[in-house]
Specification:
The protein has one helix spanning 3-14; strands at 20-24, 27-40, 52-65, 71-83, 91-102, 110-124, 131-146, 151-164, 172-186, 189-201, 205-218, 223-236, 239-253, 258-270, 276-289, 294-307, 314-328, 334-346, 353-362. By secondary structure, it is mainly beta. The chain has an 18-stranded antiparallel β-barrel. The longest helix is centred in the N-terminal third of the chain and has 12 residues, at 3-14. The protein is globular, with a radius of gyration of 22 Å. The two termini are 23 Å apart. The relative contact order is 0.12. The model is unreliable at 1-22 (pLDDT under 50).
């Protein structure tokens, strides 16, 4: 085994000792290490994919300050990945982000937010298969104003740019903005109705419009989150298409030991080659505290994507089953074991495959 792999294994055994939290003025500065060792039966995500052992070391530095009139959350970190056999896929990822909020005062009827970040990420290209690296730069901003105790509105905007490191892939730039009118049903629940517009420039240009209504907050005494529905339209050089809009992020506290989460989304996508498509994803997960320091979780996710531009007529669908066991050693350190099985079906034979991942990790 290479010396870098031996170093990572040493970090895995001692990683629980490497997280510290330090006070700095009125904020908190935290340095955290995460290490993992995973066996992956299909690292390229194709029907001829290789199996390999992946070692990852991921340090992160976080700063948070929520006192005073201005709130700030910022982080910078990386992920260094090593494959035992396919070292041509080794990677050095980077991630940085920040979020500003103003003011930190509920008595003021308005609020402002601004955030952004830059990342370099290695991942599977689910459209063509194989592993790719992409760079993402993005910014977002928001403004909310409460006209009175019941009514308000919010405006948001975003911009992002994606670049790929391989020939045959096409970068994309997206900008968009949205407006929602808000009805405050209670201090814990809002209803919103609004409109969003976005443009993406890639191999071809697309324009997206979304009409939506959603509930946000405490839907029942035990269920919290977001439940949104609507209709969306995409205009491309190849024609127009319309689909339902779905945005679901719900958490149900069954009791003090069990929590269930549900997620769902239906939307448009742009692939790494600039092709346009529609995607949907629905998931259900549950976690249970076996002891005060031990938590077990299991979940299933269904995903579907269809593509209909550049003469493509293709549908991919897949199911992923996941389970994990987390042992919280103290406030900063934990050990975990994870396992997942995925089955992917596609009109393209190369992208019909199954994938098993089993790993251990420490933070």
């Amino acid at each position: 085994m290479k010396s870098s792999h031996l170093l990572l294994v040493s970090c895995l055994l001692s990683g629980s000792l490497l997280a510290v939290t330090l006070p700095e003025d009125e904020g908190a500065l935290q340095f955290r290490n995460d290490v993992s060792l995973t066996h992956d039966s299909n690292i390229q995500g194709t029907d001829v994919g290789d199996s390999d052992l992946e070692f990852v070391y991921a340090p992160t530095l976080n700063f948070s300050r929520q006192s005073g009139i201005l709130g700030l959350d910022a982080s910078v970190g990386g992920a260094f990945g090593f494959f035992a056999d396919n070292d041509n896929y080794n990677y050095e990822d980077f991630d940085s982000k920040f979020a500003l909020t103003y003011p930190q005062d509920d008595t003021i009827p308005y609020s402002l937010s601004f955030g952004g970040g830059y990342s370099r990420t290695s991942q599977l290209d689910t459209f063509l298969g194989d592993r790719i690296q992409l760079e993402l730069l993005g910014f977002n901003a928001g403004f909310r104003y409460n006209v009175n105790e019941r009514w308000g509105y919010r405006v948001n905007g975003h911009w992002s740019d994606i670049a790929y490191d391989l020939a045959g892939r096409t970068g994309q730039t997206t900008w968009g903005a949205g407006l929602d009118f808000i009805y405050r049903y209670s201090d814990k629940l809002d209803f919103a109705a609004g409109y969003a517009y976005a443009e993406t420039s890639s191999f071809t240009d697309t324009q997206d419009q979304t009409f939506r209504i959603q509930a946000e907050g405490e839907l029942t005494p035990k269920i919290t989150g977001t439940l949104g529905v609507g209709y969306q339209i995409r205009e491309t050089d190849f024609g127009n298409s319309g689909d339902p809009y779905v945005n679901i992020e719900l958490a149900w506290a069954v009791n003090e030991r069990i929590e269930v989460a549900a997620t769902g989304s239906i939307g448009f996508l742009t692939t790494s080659t600039g092709a346009s498509g529609q995607s949907s994803s629905f998931g259900l997960a549950a976690s249970m505290a076996l002891r005060d320091s031990v938590t077990a979780s299991a979940g299933v996710t269904y995903r579907e994507a269809s593509y209909d531009s550049f003469g493509i007529d293709r549908t991919d669908e897949g199911v992923i089953f996941q389970t994990s066991l987390l042992w919280q050693l103290n406030q900063a350190a934990s050990l975990r074991a994870t396992a997942s099985y995925g089955d992917n079906q596609s009109d393209t034979d190369l992208l019909t495959y199954d994938r098993v991942r089993v790993g251990i990790g420490a933070t």
